[in-house]
Amino acid sequence: MTPAVNGRVTLNGQPLSNLEVIYSLTYGDEHKLTARTDEQGYFSFPEKVIESNLPSKLFDETRVFQEIFVEWNNQNYTLWYTVLPGITSEKVVEEKLAKLECDLTHPEKEYHFDRQDGTDFTQGVFSICNFE
Questions:
Q1: d(CA 46, CA 86)
Q2: How far apart are CA 8 and CA 27, in angstroms?
Q3: Spatial CA neighbour of 93 closest among 119, 42, 57, 131
Q4: CB 113 within 8 A of CB 125
């Protein structure tokens, strides 16, 4: 399952309204959801249960590719891109996706968030959003 997403898209701090936001989830098959920003630039997606037609394997290395992006002035902007290690969501991913604050003037950065699964691994994310 992927968590609900809530975010806002701005340009130099000013909200961008009626902008199409695309949420792509790939686990075997690609699933695309779309939303539009409101007058204040806010958008949201509900949580989604991921199902697959892939056969079960004993040593399956399940990965879920998660991407949220917008196109503005013929350019794509990555609001969120990560590869999840399985079909269950990481707590840190849920927390970050609950409040995306994305300004199209910000450069895309790579972030590494501490996972809370008892390992020393981090969750890598590419995004123009501000997480600091």
A1: 19
A2: 26
A3: 131
A4: yes
**φ, ψ of residue 18 in degrees (nearest 5):** 60, 30
Say whether 91 sits in a helix, a strand or coil.
helix
Global confidence as pTM: 0.88
Domain coordinates of the chain in residue numbers? Answer: 5-49+73-127
- Calculate mean pLDDT across residues 104-130: 90
| Structural tokens at position 107 | 């450069």
**Phi, psi of 88, deg, nearest 5:** -95, 145
> Could you please report the per-residue DSSP string of 28-79?
SEEEEEEEE--TTSEEEE--B-----PPP-TT----EEEEEEEEETTEEEEE
Average pLDDT score over residue span 34-41: 98
Interatomic CA distance for residues 53 and 50, integer angstroms? 10
